[in-house]
């Protein structure tokens, strides 16, 4: 919400929408309050947002390859990233930082905690680490 408020203010809008405001959540690129303030406008499409995210990751991958040619494999992985990858990363980070799983579920719009529990990587990591530390055979 903080970032959405900052985004709206950057566009010259109030931090929070008014009750009757119909401004889309994400405006087209180069939108400003002057040309999209309170008038009806089209939101940024999913396809356009997807293309922007892919372009950012492609640029980051190209920069990584340029700076460090030995990082080509990492750049290839980065180039495959997407908006969904960011969503999954956000869910994993919330779970790793022990945000209540019900809140993570609600933030991600999942219908079930079972789906959200897939983000509990830290529990697996902790289980493996503790098992490794405390259940050694000492050959």
Automatic annotation (TrEMBL):
InterPro entries: DNA_brk_join_enz, Integrase-like_cat_sf, Integrase_catalytic. One of its GO terms (molecular function) is DNA binding. GO terms for biological process: DNA integration; DNA recombination. Residues 1-132 form the Tyr recombinase domain. Keywords: DNA recombination. This is Integrase family protein. It comes from Caballeronia catudaia. The lineage of its organism: Bacteria, Pseudomonadati, Pseudomonadota, Betaproteobacteria, Burkholderiales.
């Amino acid at each position: 919400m903080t970032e959405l408020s900052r985004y709206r203010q950057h566009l010259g809008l109030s931090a929070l929408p008014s009750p009757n405001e119909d401004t889309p959540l994400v405006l087209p690129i180069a939108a400003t309050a002057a040309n999209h303030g309170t008038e009806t406008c089209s939101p940024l499409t999913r396809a356009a947002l997807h293309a922007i995210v892919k372009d950012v990751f492609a640029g980051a991958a190209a920069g990584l390859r340029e700076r460090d040619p030995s990082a080509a494999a990492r750049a290839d992985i980065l180039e495959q990233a997407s908006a969904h990858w960011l969503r999954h990363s956000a869910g994993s980070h919330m779970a790793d930082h022990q945000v209540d799983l019900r809140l993570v579920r609600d933030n991600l719009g999942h219908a079930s905690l079972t789906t959200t529990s897939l983000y509990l990587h830290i529990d697996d990591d902790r289980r493996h680490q503790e098992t490794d530390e405390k259940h050694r055979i000492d050959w």
